[in-house]
Design brief:
Strand content: 5-15%
Number of domains: 1
Low-confidence stretches: 1-26
Number of strands: 5
Distance between the termini: 40 Å
Amino acid sequence: MATLRRSLLIAAVVLAVGACNKTGGGSADSSEAMTMGSANAKVVMNEYASASCPHCAEFNNTVFPEFKKKYIDTGKVKYVFHEFLTPPVQFAAAGFLTARCAGPGKYFDVLDAIFRAQENIYKSGDLGGGLLRIAQSSGMTEKQFTDCISDEKALNALNARVEKASTKDGVQSTPTFIINGTKLEGEQTMAQLDAAVAAASK
């Protein structure tokens, strides 16, 4: 993992853009996964996804809104999001760090914006510029964004989260879902998730 840490740090610096206002952003060095929904829900859905994964973006954009409305917002499912890294790794890493630096209350909004803009950002070839625009729309300055994605402590924390998902949870691809212990790999339809939640609720 040491080599991966160095490569992520270098990649983040490559993505970095010029500085402006000197103010601080949120913290991206937490070891915790991000969650939504009731802590007392009978069903827990863990999603392992990468900000750079087109299949993850497709799930986020087409299936997740309905799932969230039906299960998370109603308190039936606790949702736990685990960050994973897939190529281009520098985009995934910088995307997750940006979402965390925007603050806990904005994390999922920023991640959603990244997923929805992902295809156009790839087409433009300007990965750093695409993320910067999303960061700015969330209230971050260019300086905050630059500092955020080149924070070695935060990069190390991200690597630790990814390593845990890979080794402890046995995740090798994205998206992967674990619903009350049952693993589902690849994009899932709403019908498949309905069935999985129903089985987990028994």
